[in-house]
Amino acid sequence: MYVPCYAFLAAEQLIDANKALSALLQFYVVFKCMANTKPNQAGLITLGVQFYELLRPKFPSLSEVLQSIPNVSSADVQKFDEKIAIAPVKGNKVDKAKKDLFKTNCISWDAASTSYSDTK
Q: Are 65 and 75 in contact (CB under 8 A)?
């Protein structure tokens, strides 16, 4: 439900950069709290990629949120941004390569979950 709501807000121009940044920050807070199991991680990673993919073209400052996450480098965020820019959106499907980049490069797993270390 999260992404379709923001898709509507973006299409109707009811969201600005500050709201988009705030929403992505809130996503990260939820991710840190809820990504303690593999099923939760998978769903939240898909949601994060969809949200970022939807709003990043309109709000380039979203990359600053990812860069502000501990242990995430600007180069990793840039690599993810390039993948988002090149690969077209496929309806509700999220490209596995995008999810992998988001998972390995754009989320600080140490802060999010102690159980993730055994899946690396």
A: no
CA dihedral 65, 3, 83, 97 (to 10 degrees): 110
Angle at Cα 60 formed by Cα 42 and Cα 92, nearest 5°?
A: 35
- pLDDT-above-70 percentage for the chain: 82
**Digit-coded pLDDT (tens) for 65-111:** 888 888 888 898 899 898 888 866 666 678 888 888 888 777 755 44
16-20's contacts with Cβ under 8 Å and 24+ in sequence apart are 17/59, 17/61, 20/55, 20/58, 20/59, 20/61, 20/62
